[in-house]
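Table S2 (text version). Query chain:
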Amino acid sequence: MLTRHYEHWPFRLTKQIVIPDTTIYNNLEISAKRYPENIAINYYGNKLTYKQLIKEVDAMAGFLQHELGVTKGDKVLLLMQNSPQYIIGYYAILRADAIVVPLNPMLKTMELEFYIKDGDIKNAIIGQELIENVHPLLVDGFLKNIIIAAYSDYISDEFPLEIPREVAVFRKESNHSNHYLWNECIGFNYVPNETTSGPDDLAVIPYTSGTTGLPKGCMHTNRTVQANTAGGAHWNRTNASNVQLATLPFFHVTGMVGSMHTPIFAGSTIVIMTRWNREVAVELISRYKCTNWVAICTMVTDFLANPNLDKEQISSLISIAGGGATLPEAVGQKLYEMTGIKFTEGYGLTETIAQTHQNPGERPKMQCLGIPSFGVDARIINPNTNQEVEAGEEGEIIINGQQVMIGYYNREDENEKAFIYMDDKRFLRTGDIGRYDEEGYFFIVDRVKRMINASGFKVWPTEVESYLYKHPAVHQACVIGVPDTRKGETIKAFIILKEEYKGKINEKEIITWAKKNMAAYKYPRFVEFKTKLPTTSSGKILWRKLQEEEQKVK
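Corresponding structure-token output:
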């Protein structure tokens, strides 16, 4: 096990922690007993105490059990944007001894169908703005029931700043059967059954594209989630006095753990933003004295580009951390000059429910993944020989730690490929090429996986191609990532048209169709028609050659 990074371990922090033998719901239960009157959630001026939060969580859990028949081990879809209802819904599903399946609210009906069938999901909790995408799945029998939440139910009427459009929309009534309105579900005040879940029961199945074109569910137990929840709280020295600005989506593991689970574990306050808005972010930090912010580099860059930014307004901040992509050095320097805070990057995967590496706050390195977190055994191996390599040498990052998933849901063949055993330990193969320096800090070099990273969202080209093939004009398609100054990468599709469509359709029409049928982060921003694509002798498309040619053009 690599230990050279211990020399640079955060001051006065133990190198190991004991993972709680409790559930994620228990964290809320304990914080509600310790800090009943502390503000748990601040949502556009409306505040919920921990006492109020757990009361609503339990009421929703009771409704799930007594009205919808949710039982232990059932998977419940959670599809909404950052809001109090997201947190309440998440913890209610756990309190009902069920399993949370969090999905990106930008997914369209055709995409959602895959996840619902793959996870055998019958019940969903959704934001009301998503009803058009979800209702057809109820009609077609894929779902049985949906609970519909209106974000406006939880905002303050006196909040003076700009509120996102979907948040301001009033609650809409519904006459459809098997549609249940959030406020009515809570209003029943059902008492949930006695919980039977334990630390090793499944808690959440977030989906990742992983190493093949089909998305895969990462099975995480309460214990694996607790590893990073408790670990994050200890690493960042979080307590009930901290105020967390939550801007990363809760469906994403970094936002889920860093901006939701960890603050609740500590009894902290979560100031929620449904939509990113740099001016509103500044005002929220100033008004509510936010101390911590987990973000992605594009948010930080946009935040600092605000010409009206006054450092006095954000003087309460003591920590800004994130990951997904490296922060440009010039932006990191500007942040430090304005705030005295060094941006601390981290590294993790959906398979590890967020962080496995973090930069020490006292000694971070720019454009660096950080050092292995509590109990993490991270190594670099030659991906061809599986032999461990030395400091400075490049290879695949592999990880052993308590936060590593127990496996992919219903994907035994993928599980065999995803892990490797060394020294009687099971390591996750990340598919990322990296190295570590003489001090034990890790750096990413490239990706073994054919993955596109657009503003922190991971896009699997094969999945995008599969949807493009549904267009009647598409004969062949190849999707690659191309450089983008703002997003880091964006999506481009090379397409060969069917003969009967040549000259009758243009690239813009393909993009418009894709935008309608794919999530906003996923559809191609660029389309180029080709008469042929480079292939191997067996006919396999050489996507890497297209990518290399595109980079030369750029």
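Notes on Table S2: The mean pLDDT is 93. Residues 50-66 form the longest helix (17 residues).
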